[in-house]
Amino acid sequence: MAPSALPDHDASLALYRQMLTIRRCEEQLAKSYQAGLIPGACHTYVGEEAIATGVCAHLSHDDAVFSTHRGHGHALAKGVPPKQLIAELFGKATGCSQGRGGSMHLFSPEVGMMGTSGIVAPCILQAAGAGYSFKLLGAEHVGVAFFGDGAVANGAFHEGINLATNWQLPVLFVCENNQFATEIAFADTTRNPEVANRAAAYGLPGTAIDGNDVDLVYQTTAEALQRARTGGGPTLIECKTYRTRPHAEGMRDGGYRALEEIEAWKKRDPITTYAERLTSGERAEQSEIDVIDNEVTALVAEALKFAHDSPWPDPATVAEHTYNESGAAHA
Ligand SMILES: Cc1ncc(C[n+]2csc(CCOP(=O)(O)OP(=O)(O)O)c2C)c(N)n1
User: Fold this and answer.
1) Residue 310's closest CA among 75, 32, 86, 109?
2) What is the domain class of 9-304 according to CATH?
């Protein structure tokens, strides 16, 4: 699959800003977790920011994203403001799910963020379902599933991709292959440690790219979305990447992977390498990068303060959002 054009000066800086916003939020969330401020699990996206950023740069609020347990980056890139994300993880009423969901239940339908999920793989089926509804409606919107390599041996992968391809639905399947599911190496769970070449079995285009290269993610997504929005059906994009923090905050990070491997991937950091590329290739000035760094640091500090200062949900509302309260008759 030949990639489309490189992002221009403004688009490149927007990609840099988005990746850095995710990174700074994750750093704050890791610290907050260590300070005991986050009830529940917290799986950070550190090291994988280029994927959500490069994909979501092309999406509108009408496109539907379905995500995973590692979904903070997807939510932010899709348009959830940092203050709503951090407040949600703190359990505050101002969070995107009003403090009732936490990290693995981030919902913001108004921006097309249709949910993170603690269950591995159903996002693949949900994105296929969204694609089906968009096709029935004759809309040019797409359903997008982000999922890890741990979802690939789940039946949902087979069912969702087969159905979306057979019916030529407008869907993007984005596998974030960070090479581990919890502490199990992908290569130890399959005789075929490549994901993209599985596409041949279903008859859809599949491509494997460097998921730490935001330009490449951006370009590859542009072409896949063009196909999806014009009736050409789904695409499977395998983004090879690495998480450089433990599976979840509070967990160990030794015993199942080599520290040298983690250090080697940190040198391929998607954010610092992108800043170097932009400045050395004369796509942007260092002074522009510096301004963004300062603005993002201030934005996230403000979001953290907002979350701290926000109220807890009113206990009297505990049963709200549990049942359908629209008054519609139930079957
Ligand atoms: C259906 C299901 N099986 C098992 C689990 C337990 N589990 C939670 S996270 C995880 C690993 C997921 O790995 P991957 O999909 O590669 O995503 P990553 O954590 O690497 O981003 C597993 C097995 C689960 N949540 N859901």
Assistant:
1) 86
2) alpha beta
